[in-house]
Amino acid sequence: MDERLLTGTMKINKANHLEIGGIDTISLVEKYGTPLYVYDISQVKHKAQMFKKAFQDRKIKAQVAYASKAFSCLAIYQLMAKEEMSLDVVSGGELFTAIQADYPSKKIHFHGNNKSDAEIIAALDYNIGCFVVDNFYELEKLNQYTKQRKQNMSILLRVTPGVEAHTHEYITTGQTDSKFGFDLNNGQAQQALQLAMQMPYIDVMGLHCHIGSQIFETEGFSLAIDKLVMQSKEWHEAMGFDLRVLNVGGGFGIRYTSEDEPLPIEDYINNLIDEVQSVTTKVQLPMPEIWIEPGRSLVGDAGITLYQVGSQKIIPDVRNYLAIDGGMTDNIRPALYDAKYTGVLANRVEDAVEETYSIAGKCCESGDMLIWDLPLPKADDKDVLAVFSTGAYGYAMASNYNRIPRPPVIFVENGKDFLAIKRESYADLMRLERSLY
Ligand SMILES: *Cc1c(COP(=O)(O)O)cnc(C)c1O
């Protein structure tokens, strides 16, 4: 197997089993059943520290905010708070969970393109660190509420710089034709800034952009930084705008399969810093704080999913389908984005490869395919399939389609396992339902 997929504490132990956090995955399966999400928590912490250290080493003022839509739950919020990370939330539900985790309010940044009144009020009540304002509708509401409450609030304006990161088109949000943010090129961003700077309780700290996801090159970030800084220079001269915070979003890539070649974290960060330093020097603006928002790159490759192998459909000369006991309900990314994953048989990792299987989920949907053409040893129903890099947008996007309960989430570290989220029961599935007769 490709050893580069064994990130963090993952390894193959003497029993030829996949091990994570010092624990044999097969013993986790015996204890918790399948499907099962497992997070190598020391790796999450390590990544968080690497992002922060990359800025500290260069003595750059920065905030590293965990984009928590990638994986949101009480325990991960508690972990991120302990690591002194900032936190992005995009909904009242994520905010509520952060509040339950006693997340330091000033470290919370609120995103989203259609924040409701109730969500805005909840965030004002908790007195979060900033709103990332997406549109005129939100800006006006925020103006009204802050005036009514005589409450100051910091904001960043989310702008679309018209830069396209090289990635799947469904997850590209930086181009002009996007539902997010104020367009930099058509004057709307400038108009929003003019309005916001006149609002009595609103402090515009700076600008935000997010140019895409699963980005492997630094050019997109550099282009976006250039545009935002040059534009800020014009706005500084025309209306006295000071760019104190430049938030360049997230999107740092991870390895899902052997084809992916992500940059080391410090390379992404050093490049961001170099670019901000060089362009601000060029246009003679002070160095702003740099904020980033990694989601996937903090939790993605720290997570694996374990499944029990089940039925097979062998179509001679066509394809071998191998079904597992989960699928699009616990990982919708292959169906939604054509995302690629790879995996191994966790109970005999290094056995010789004999077959090629396409891994099918158990949902009544032909599109419920997890992996196409995966080379594996000859599999049978005692085997456990481990799929790598499922820590981001897996549990977070899980559904109950076909009334399949969501799997539990286990954190592992130093030989200990912690049940972060219990397995849903059938009764849980019905807890909101009322009998008609
Ligand atoms: C989704 C998102 C992120 C995180 O993206 P990743 O690819 O998971 O790093 C960061 N910022 C914003 C605004 C986002 O929408």
What features would you describe in this structure?
The structure is a single chain. By secondary structure, the chain is an alpha/beta fold. It folds into two domains: 3-33 and 302-429, Lyase, Ornithine Decarboxylase, Chain A, domain 1; 41-297, TIM Barrel, CATH 3.20.20.10. 30% of the residues lie in helices and 24% in strands. The chain is built from twelve helices and 21 strands. Strands 4, 14, 15, 16, 17, 18, 19, 20 and 21 form a nine-stranded mixed sheet that branches. Strands 5-6-7-8-9-11-12-13 form an eight-stranded parallel β-barrel, surrounded by seven helices. A three-stranded antiparallel sheet has the order 1-2-3. 48% of the residues are buried. The protein binds pyridoxal-5'-phosphate (PLP). Pyridoxal-5'-phosphate binds next to helix 10.
Helix content, binned percent: 25-40%
Mean pLDDT: 96
Bound small molecules, which ones? pyridoxal-5'-phosphate
CATH superfamily of the largest domain: Alanine racemase
Brief digest:
This protein is α/β, with parallel strands linked by helices. It contains twelve helices and 21 strands.
Key descriptive features of the protein:
437 residues; alpha/beta; Lyase, Ornithine Decarboxylase, Chain A, domain 1; TIM Barrel; 2 domains; 9-stranded mixed beta sheet; 12 helices; 21 strands; binds pyridoxal-5'-phosphate
